[in-house]
Design a protein that fits this description.
It contains four helices and 34 strands. The mean pLDDT is about 95. The strands form six sheets. It has a ten-stranded mixed sheet with strand order 8-11-14-19-22-25-28-31-33-34, with helices on one face. It has an eight-stranded parallel sheet with strand order 7-10-13-18-21-24-27-30, with no helix packed on it. The N and C termini lie far apart (about 65 Å). It folds into two domains: about 90 residues, MurE/MurF, N-terminal domain (Udp-n-acetylmuramoylalanyl-d-glutamate--2,6- Diaminopimelate Ligase, Chain: A, domain 1, 3-Layer(aba) Sandwich); about 180 residues, Hexapeptide repeat proteins (UDP N-Acetylglucosamine Acyltransferase, domain 1, 3 Solenoid). The protein is of the alpha/beta class. GO terms for molecular function: N-acyltransferase activity.
Length: about 300
């Protein structure tokens, strides 16, 4: 999430009411979660296990809950609760905006689009040309949709990320300030749900086709010309490279990569990253021929044992 202008370290420290380490004029351009952080951004970290990753990331400023040595070329914001302070940044720079219209006045819709009844289109949504949006589709704020896109009935684009921190009192929610980008020539089936990014964008690239009842988590990137069959659940921060085929009822762990031209057979649990150009099956996931051979060997062992 980029800020509307360049802010100084001192300005952000005052906004959050925290200490800082570094020049008070140190420039800050935005804030992002660790998976999508860029130079000029703030990233937050609140567990020693991830200190090193955050401090060595592309982030220019680390919002952290302990005074540590500041890496060269970076700055620190010292917070008692970085998770809550990161939420303060989201609330300040991208607050929730109520819409009282089915189609927001700030939405932009291109030529030759068909918008069927009962479609909701939120603030700052842009839709390209020659799109068809079927009844009861909900498009939350800040979604960007390309040309020649079809979205079938009941689909929801832009719900919040499923991202919580467990406290003694329950679960605290990490607020979502990102968006969704749908590129050209994408088809999305009925009753799909695609969550917005926490601070970046969930992206569906050109030519990808998504079946009914598919869930795609926050900040996930789906490549070009992918096929994703019904009842698949893709977790947050996943990268699905180009020309991947995912068959029905597949589930994935978060933060993994599925390589280019991979094929994931139905009911597979993708528990780790997998290389492209191969077919995979089973839970935990393995190359399909290896997995099927193992299953056949186990079956034979059990058969021999009965004898």
């Amino acid at each position: 999430m980029k800020f509307p202008r360049k802010f100084s370290l001192l300005e952000i420290a005052k906004l959050l009411e925290v200490e800082y380490v570094g020049s008070e004029n140190f420039p800050i351009l935005g804030c992002n979660e660790i998976h999508v952080v860029e130079e000029g951004d703030i990233v937050f970290v609140d567990h020693p296990k991830y200190y090193d990753k955050a401090l060595k990331s592309k982030a220019s400023v680390v919002l952290i809950n302990k005074k540590v040595e500041c890496p060269a070329g970076k700055a620190l914001l010292i917070s008692k609760d970085p998770f809550t302070d990161f939420n303060k940044l989201t609330t300040h720079f991208n607050p929730f905006k109520q819409s009282n219209l089915l189609i927001s006045e700030s939405a932009k819709i291109g030529k030759n689009c068909i918008i069927q009844p009962n479609v909701f289109i939120g603030n700052n949504v842009s839709i390209g040309e020659n799109c068809v949006i079927h009844p009861n589709v909900t498009i939350y704020d800040d979604c960007k949709i390309g040309n020649n896109v079809t979205i079938h009935a009941g689909t929801i684009l832009g719900a919040d990320a499923f991202y919580y921190k467990k406290r003694d009192t329950g679960y605290d929610k990490l607020l979502s300030g990102g968006g969704i980008i749908i590129k050209d020539n994408v088809d999305i089936g009925a009753l799909c749900t695609i969550d917005r990014g926490v601070s970046g964008n969930t992206t569906i690239n050109k030519g990808t086709k998504i079946d009914n009842q598919v869930q795609i988590g926050h900040d996930t990137i789906i490549g070009k010309n992918c096929l994703i069959a019904s009842q698949t659940g893709i977790a947050g921060c996943v990268v699905v490279e180009d020309n991947v085929t995912i068959w029905g009822q597949v589930g994935t762990n978060s933060g993994i990569t599925i390589g280019e031209k991979a094929v994931i057979l139905g009911q597979t649990g993708v528990t780790k990253s997998v290389k492209g150009g191969h077919t995979y099956f089973g839970t935990p996931v393995e190359e399909s021929r290896k997995k099927l051979k193992e299953m056949a060997e186990i079956k034979q062992l059990l058969k021999n044992k009965k004898k």
